[in-house]
Q: What sequence folds into this?
């Protein structure tokens, strides 16, 4: 099966500082992987390369057949419709309800969706994350875990091929964090590739999915699913 | 056997949905955002209205000056040869014949004392003066239109001292008068143009700043829009529409005030305008108002384009 996400010698420098150094990586459709490493290891940089928030200094990034490294600014929106993003701070619009936040993601990415279709699909996405009954609530009326689930619903409502999550459990207690990760796992079962950057090693060990370890911008270890024991950087 | 039901005209329906959504994103959402941000846009709207109004009035004044300059240029080629009150008809006829046969002269007309008085009475500020005199102080004249302005001085010199010509004020020739007026009008024109440029610059800066403020206020929304895959036009378009709305509303308000002010001034000084700046009428005021509206629309759109480019491309 061809890779849905592929990095070939991807390097990203900020001046003299090398944030990501010659990373080679391939993720298949429906695969779920964790990206771990100490702070400043380059996890967020790698996710930003995938979503084309930044360009690689050298090397190639391919997402669902799109050459992200060579993408013209006018085509970035095409890529973003194939990549759903979940952030640690949720990034919900406070003046919109949960349903409207999810619908917003769909409205701006698919002009051909009618109002009824947008409503139905957004509500479906909210129900899928267990928040169908909170559709009319504003973000301020929701707990952190609920807000994160709304953010996940928004990330997946347009059915992207890839979902990347940057510390999605960073602001959540362990139980809620576990629920959120399980939710992302369910999403991967429908064929979506999920890549989660996290510091939460308990969850990584419990999930027993593929683990990619970054240290000082280099991919130092790639542990396949089911064989996650000691984590390279954590044990050092 | 089952029946396959097909939705009627799905492609057309989807196209309609795309058009409706595009319209909503581009115009309805922009209008809502514009109203929501009125507190921030208000000062820019007020400043722009004032600046456009000033531009409109300066523009009208400039047009009046231009007409005045054109009138002056036309009059400069006309030489009035004033006749003595006791001039003999034969001498007048001889002078007229001589002027008529001159190669430099295009036409020769005659204005009697009565016609001269009537003409004076119609000139701004001269009516009372003309009526105050016991007898008619205005002389009859031969009105000579020359082919070239440069020949006026020579012809004036050639007719002075003739038997039919007034010995005290022989002609209307005033060397340098026309040049002085033209120079003064040029200076006024340059100053007006510079003032208009300055106003335009200020209007663009004010509007660009208000759009910049709107962009900054919606930074998180814009970032999310971009992250979820909103195309560039969807992110930038609404700001352009908002800028155009600010410009159009300011332009409309300023245009209406320019029109009203222009119409009132023209109506109040109808005879004056007819004499010194023919062509300055209600139609011209309407045109000025339309220009002000268009200028507002263009300035608003241009300023927001500039601001969007600077803020969002960065």
A:
């Amino acid at each position: 099966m061809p890779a849905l996400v592929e990095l070939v010698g991807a390097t990203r420098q900020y001046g003299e500082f090398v944030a990501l150094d010659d990373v080679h990586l391939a993720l298949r459709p429906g695969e779920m992987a964790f990206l771990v490493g100490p702070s400043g290891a380059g996890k967020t940089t790698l996710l930003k390369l995938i979503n084309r928030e930044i360009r690689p200094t050298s090397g190639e990034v391919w997402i669902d057949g799109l050459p992200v490294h060579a993408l013209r600014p006018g085509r970035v929106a095409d890529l973003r419709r194939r990549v759903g993003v979940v952030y640690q701070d949720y990034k919900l619009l406070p003046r919109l309800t949960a349903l409207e936040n999810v619908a917003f993601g769909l409205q701006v990415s698919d002009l051909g969706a009618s109002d009824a279709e947008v409503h139905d699909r957004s509500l479906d996405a909210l129900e899928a994350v267990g928040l169908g009954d909170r559709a009319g609530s504003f973000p301020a009326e929701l707990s952190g875990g609920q807000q994160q689930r709304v953010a996940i619903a928004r990330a997946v409502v347009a059915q992207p091929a890839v979902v990347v999550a940057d510390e999605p459990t960073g602001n959540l207690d362990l139980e809620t964090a576990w629920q959120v990760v399980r939710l992302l796992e369910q999403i991967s079962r429908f064929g979506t590739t999920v890549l989660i950057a996290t510091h939460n090693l308990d969850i990584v060990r419990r999930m027993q999915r593929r683990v990619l370890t970054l240290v000082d911008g280099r991919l130092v270890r790639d542990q396949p699913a089911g064989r996650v024991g000691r984590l390279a950087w954590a044990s050092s | 056997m089952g029946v396959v039901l097909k939705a009627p005209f799905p492609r057309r329906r989807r196209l309609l949905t795309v058009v409706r959504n595009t319209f909503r994103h581009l115009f309805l959402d922009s209008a809502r955002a514009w109203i929501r941000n009125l507190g921030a846009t208000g000062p820019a709207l007020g400043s722009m209205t004032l600046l456009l109004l000033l531009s409109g009035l300066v523009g009208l004044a400039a047009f009046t000056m231009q007409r005045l300059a054109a009138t002056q240029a036309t009059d400069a080629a006309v030489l009035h040869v004033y006749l003595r009150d006791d001039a003999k008809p034969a001498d007048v006829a001889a002078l007229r014949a001589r002027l008529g046969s001159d190669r430099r002269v295009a036409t020769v007309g005659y204005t009697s004392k009565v016609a001269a008085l009537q003409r004076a009475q119609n000139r701004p500020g001269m009516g009372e003066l003309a009526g105050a005199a016991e007898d008619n102080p205005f002389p009859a004249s031969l009105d000579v239109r020359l082919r070239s302005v440069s020949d006026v001085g020579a012809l004036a010199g050639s007719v002075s001292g003739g038997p039919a010509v007034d010995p005290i004020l022989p002609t209307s020739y005033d060397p340098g008068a026309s040049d002085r007026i033209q120079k003064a009008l040029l200076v006024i024109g340059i100053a007006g143009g510079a003032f208009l440029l300055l106003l335009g610059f200020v209007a663009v800066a004010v509007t660009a700043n208000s759009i910049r403020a709107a962009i900054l206020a919606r930074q998180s929304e814009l970032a999310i829009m971009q992250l979820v895959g909103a195309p560039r036009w969807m992110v930038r378009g609404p700001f352009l529409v908002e800028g155009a709305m600010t410009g159009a509303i300011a332009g409309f308000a300023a245009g209406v005030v320019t029109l009203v002010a222009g119409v009132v001034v023209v109506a109040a000084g109808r005879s004056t305008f007819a004499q010194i700046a023919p062509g300055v009428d209600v139609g011209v005021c309407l045109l000025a108002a339309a220009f002000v509206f268009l200028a507002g629309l263009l300035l608003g759109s241009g300023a927001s384009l500039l601001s969007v480019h600077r803020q969002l491309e960065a």
Residues 1-82+164-236 of chain A form a domain with the Rossmann fold fold (CATH 3.40.50.300). Chain A has a mean pLDDT of 90. The longest strand of chain A covers residues 17-27. Strands of chain A lie at 5-14, 17-27, 32-36, 58-63, 66-67, 83-87, 162-166, 193-197, 210-215, 218-223.
